[in-house]
């Protein structure tokens, strides 16, 4: 490619800058990075197959962040900025129903989608959109004032958006423009230092702390940044030893002896940060808000729809029930069609004698093919809701007697004016391509 700074380099640089900014502003995040690096080093040194779900370089650099925006226009502009970084919307998460407390948002994750592109820089951003039209949360009067407030603010400067359009069109930027783009983009996700309107913030907070965090201030901000760790149970213990109070559990599948699947996450609560407030009499006072927190995650194998259905069925059940029901080896996950793998011809000459088996399990067992797990690159709605919830001090109010508005992936594609990918389809296509290639190289028919 002819552009000096291709989009994946922009993405890697942007992830580093955000991480530096967050580390300066949220010291507990730096502790989390230190402990994660320590744990990862030890796991790698212990040996075993720790590298199976991603090499140490990728895992150490890996982060996801989260932002929240207020309107379709803001969401579309965020999508434009992420497109410049080679990140596309994947998946639709409706968090309005996924939590007991009041979380009036729907979300997607912006991330690289090509397998090679993920490998180069796996940065992702979980992005949530306030559902201000949902009557269960906002009455018509509040919706009107909220939308008027949001309509007046500007999250991203026009220069940044212009550079983003160019970067998307050309697949990257020249060095000078890249620097400017990175500076403006990073600044757009810093915490605003402008005074917060006390009464307005408090009014929204009564509905939901998430609504206040989005619609009560004049900007958006990264609310957490999450490193990836190879042993999350060990990390959890060490953070506690350092005196950082984590939420009471690790979200996602239980710890067990079988393969790591999907995603396990845990977080620490947002710390109180000093902010300025504008009071009703016009004076400016200081106070504190808790809006930026820390989270860490361990990633496992991506599950197929069938695997995911079983995971959902077993969620909330005991670790014993899980161990009894969930396939306990990669081989079983592959043979039972429960997880996604990249297939390749096994090393060495194909086994002699007899025709090759026609089914996938036979090809694996007979030593024709080798399977490598495809890492889960997405999120889990129940865990995401748990992460939101762990940072709410109060439940907020939701009038369940009223009906909500139906939103789905197609609706979000319309808002973004870009396709929102189905994550299952992305993993399935990767698996299928690898299987076709592997079979072609061995002159085998595609397995039944
Ligand atoms: C996003 C929470 C979801 C995750 O890792 O599941 C999330 C937010 O708090 O804005 O980041
Ligand atoms: Ni997160």
TrEMBL record:
The keyword Iron applies. It is an enzyme of class 1 (oxidoreductase). It comes from the Bacteria. Its cofactor is Fe(2+). Its EC number is 1.13.11.93. Keywords: Dioxygenase, Iron, Oxidoreductase. Coiled coil: none annotated. It holds the Pfam family HGLS. The keyword Iron applies. Belongs to the 2-oxoadipate dioxygenase/decarboxylase family. This is 2-oxoadipate dioxygenase/decarboxylase. It comes from Streptomyces chengmaiensis.
């Amino acid at each position: 490619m002819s552009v000096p700074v291709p989009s994946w380099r922009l993405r890697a640089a942007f992830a580093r800058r955000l991480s530096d900014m967050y580390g300066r502003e949220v010291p507990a995040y730096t502790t989390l990075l230190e402990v994660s690096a320590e744990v990862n080093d030890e796991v790698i040194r212990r040996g075993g197959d720790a590298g199976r779900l991603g090499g140490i370089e990728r895992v150490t650099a890996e982060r996801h962040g989260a932002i929240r925006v207020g309107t379709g226009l803001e969401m579309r502009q965020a999508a434009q900025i992420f497109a410049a970084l080679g990140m596309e919307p994947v998946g639709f998460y409706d968090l309005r129903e996924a939590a007991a407390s009041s979380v009036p948002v729907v979300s997607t994750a912006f991330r690289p989608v090509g397998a090679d592109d993920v490998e180069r820089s796996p940065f992702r951003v979980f992005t949530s959109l306030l559902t201000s039209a949902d009557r269960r949360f906002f009455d018509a009067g509040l919706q009107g004032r909220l939308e008027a407030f949001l309509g007046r603010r500007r999250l991203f400067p026009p220069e940044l958006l212009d550079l983003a359009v160019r970067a998307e069109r050309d697949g990257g930027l020249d060095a000078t423009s890249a620097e400017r783009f990175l500076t403006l983009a990073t600044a757009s996700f810093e915490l605003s230092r402008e005074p917060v309107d006390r009464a307005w913030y408090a009014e929204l907070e009564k509905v939901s702390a998430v609504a206040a965090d989005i619609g009560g201030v004049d900007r958006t901000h990264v609310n957490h940044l999450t490193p990836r760790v190879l042993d999350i149970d060990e990390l959890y213990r060490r953070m506690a030893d350092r005196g950082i109070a984590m939420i009471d559990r690790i979200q996602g599948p239980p710890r067990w002896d079988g393969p790591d699947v999907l995603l396990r996450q845990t977080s620490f609560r947002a710390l109180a940060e000093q902010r300025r407030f504008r009071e009703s009499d016009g004076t400016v006072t200081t106070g504190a808000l808790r809006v930026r927190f820390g989270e860490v995650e361990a990633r496992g194998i991506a599950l197929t729809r069938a695997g995911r259905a079983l995971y959902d069925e077993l969620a909330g059940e005991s670790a014993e029930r899980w161990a009894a029901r969930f396939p306990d080896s990669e081989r079983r996950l592959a043979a039972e069609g429960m997880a996604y793998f990249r297939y390749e011809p096994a090393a060495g000459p194909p086994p002699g004698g007899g025709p090759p088996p026609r089914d996938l399990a036979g090809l694996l067992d007979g030593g024709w093919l080798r399977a490598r797990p495809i890492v889960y690159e997405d999120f889990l709605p129940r865990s995401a809701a748990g992460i939101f919830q762990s940072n709410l001090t109060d439940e907020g109010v939701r009038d369940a007697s009223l009906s909500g508005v139906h939103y789905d992936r197609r609706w979000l594609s319309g808002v973004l004016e870009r396709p929102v990918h189905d994550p299952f389809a992305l993993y399935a296509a990767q698996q299928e391509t690898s299987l076709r290639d592997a079979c072609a190289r061995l002159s085998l028919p595609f397995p039944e």
